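re: ur question from yesterday

yeah so i grabbed the chain u mentioned. its 284 aa long if i counted rite. heres the sequnce exactly as i have it in my notes:
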Amino acid sequence: MLFRSFFRYNDPQTGGGEVRTAEQLVAHAKALKAEHGFRVHKLKGGVYPPAYELSCYRALAAALPADRFRYDPNSALSLADAIDFGRGILDLRNDYYEDPVWGLPQLARLKEFVSLPIATNTVVVNFEQLAANERFRAVDVVLLDTTFWGGIRPCIKAAGVCETLGVGVAVHSSGELGIQLATMLHMGAVVPNLGYAADAHYHHLRDDVIVGGKMAYANGAIRVPDGKGLGVALDRAKLAQYHELYRELGGYPYDRDPGRPGWYPTIPNSDWANPNASLRPKLR
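ran it thru and got these structure tokens back, copy pasting raw so excuse formatting
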């Protein structure tokens, strides 16, 4: 599995944990590599100006020269920015360039200028879109997700279609807890043409709602659960505990920035966060 890295604010309670600078990003990646054994690293971008994120990505690659890398700005880049960024990483050990711009036509256009494999978990998430991709030849790697595709069986079917069409497959991560993670692990274990390390958010979690707590990493991987069914069981007490926490804190706006209350996401984006500002926003 891979280490998915986010830029993040200082913890509102402890004041620590910030990942904003290239030095902080590298230190965080090295710490998690030492703890979990990750050998593939993905930078989740689209936060700071593209040139700044490019410098951070290159610093990460320079610090871990034997590892592999991916960049995903959540389609926030303009076509011009995506071309510049893609050309700026051609010499690195990239698995692929994930969702740099939005839509199959734009991705296909980008491929005319940047010779990197293009991956997506946003614009090919059903069989109709998979068929459309065969026309555009825009996406080289489809990131399968049991939530987006509707379960394990549709993902296995999609993997077979991808193999027929000469399209690569990988496993996405959408911030899942242990039950959905178990579905992803089982799916990834039986897809014969899985060609890349699976995405993972799991190391960012403090706890889980399955019996026994969080599953453990070993040498950068999580063992496929081998119990009945999915191999995991719901911890009802933990579920009740976190239900009460949700009632206390409420939901969170997935596509907003707590450090910039007046900011709203646009595609492409041009209003970037300030990389020189060290912030400590409140939870509420």
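noticed a couple things. The longest strand covers residues 40-44. also DSSP finds eight helices and nine strands in the chain.
anyway ttyl
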